[in-house]
Amino acid sequence: MDFLEEVLSKIARRYALKTCLRGTMKLGEHLDREQMTVLANFFGLAPLKVNNKEEVRLIFKDLLQNSSESQWLKKIGDTLGYPLQAQPKNNGEANRKATQGIYASLVLAYPELHSLFSLLQEDDSSIRSILSGNSEKKGKEKCFAMAEIISFLLHNSEVITVSDLGARFFKDSKSLRQGELRTLLIRWLRLVEPQPELLDADDLLASHHILHDRLTVNAVLYGPILYEKNGKTFDWIYQLYRQGETATLGWSNIQDIDRIYLQEQDSCTPDLISCENEAPFSSLIHQKKNSCLLFTSGFPSSAVQRLYQLLSPLAASCHHWGDSDPAGLRIAAIMHKLHPLNLYRCEVSTLQRHKKMLLPLSQQQKNDILNIVENQPDFPFPDELLFTLDNGWLEQESWQVSRSQKPEDRSQIS
Q: Does position 199 have pLDDT exceeding 50, yes or no?
């Protein structure tokens, strides 16, 4: 399905449910010039609006200024090859049976996704939305292709772009960039992700190693690091470290590293500290000159995770410093799963010393913690979760050295 057909199918489904063309509808975001040209040629420029988030929206009021709704319905239907129709009120039973039939087939074909399908049965809106704009056969094909993608992603550890994924499973590199199929992918991934409410769409995709492109994925770190690749030794990270500067590695730098080293400092192997936010990371550079520091920039990208996997076995010890809210502790848990670590400056003893600095939790944050406690019995930092639930959370920037506490040294890093 090409880009225009995807957009028009979305309008057809909207009309089937709402029985009219009113309001506004998001057509995509960060669209390229070719896609914008396709939209402008079909709808004209007047009804297309781009906001500051680079979301492209169709304003139906402006669309219908010079042509009637019936004329646009016919034009869209002629392009799609079938007439746009409002969904008959008595069609619900047929749709329900078709939806249940698809569920039954999916459960048989993908038993490993049983928990996902159980959740979909509780709220079948995603499959019903697919059926409302497609024939039952085509809707079933799309659902099976999406199940195949989810099954693949649950076992995938390699970086893949949205375009690669679309080409591989739908034979169309643009199919998952926006529109119906992207929406379906996001909905289903949110159901298999333990804490989906903590992630926006891009974070959710990145957590499954799906990137918009490889060139813009990077990681920032600071440390006495050398690596070997293609028979050569590269020391540029170490040279920047000696100047007190960070290094930024792109995915192409990290790919195919044959061997990586951590140089001893003052006859000691460096510790590795991952850090969630930028200002605390920058302060660590001055406070922990002999440590290796890795900036996660919130939820860690595939590049950050890969570097941590490479460096953590070489470090004297591994630590993570982040906010103590549920999102921050979940970031620490992601890193801990890659290689065990200790919390740094956000463990219970630090939180207790900073009680006056703690921020109140929102109701959503409280719900997030309760969900983790209930659904993730192996979560590595339960004490911090429960303390935060009872007392509030510490922002990284609010951390302070206690007056009674001596400046940290290597023996007191944890």
A: yes
Q: Can you spell out the DSSP letters for 105-159?
A: HHHHH-GGGHHHHHHHHH-THHHHHHHHHS-HHHHHHHHHHHHHHHHHHHH--S-
- Residues constituting the chain: 414
Which residue's entry shows tokens 């690749």?
Answer: 229
Average pLDDT, the chain: 85
Position 81: which residue type? G
Q: Report the first-to-last Cα separation within the chain, whole angstroms.
A: 54
- For residue 72, give the nearest of 257, 80, 192 by alpha carbon: 80
Q: Is the pTM of this model over 0.85?
A: no
Banded pLDDT at 187 (limits 50, 70, 90): confident
pLDDT in tens, 213-270: 777 678 999 999 999 999 999 999 999 999 999 999 988 898 889 999 999 988 899 9
What value does the mean pLDDT take over residues 9-37?
83
Looking at this protein, which amino acid is placed at residue 370? L
Which ranges of 323-379 would DSSP assign to H, the alpha helix?
326-338, 348-353, 363-375
Record the tokens describing residue 249, joined without a space. 């590695």
Max intra-chain CA distance, the chain = 79
CB 247 within 8 A of CB 221: yes
Sign of CA dihedral 192, 197, 201, 202: negative
Whether the CB-CB separation of 40 and 1 falls below 8 Å is answered with: no
- The answer to whether 351 touches 394, Cβ cutoff 8 Å, is yes
- The answer to whether 346 touches 321, Cβ cutoff 8 Å, is yes
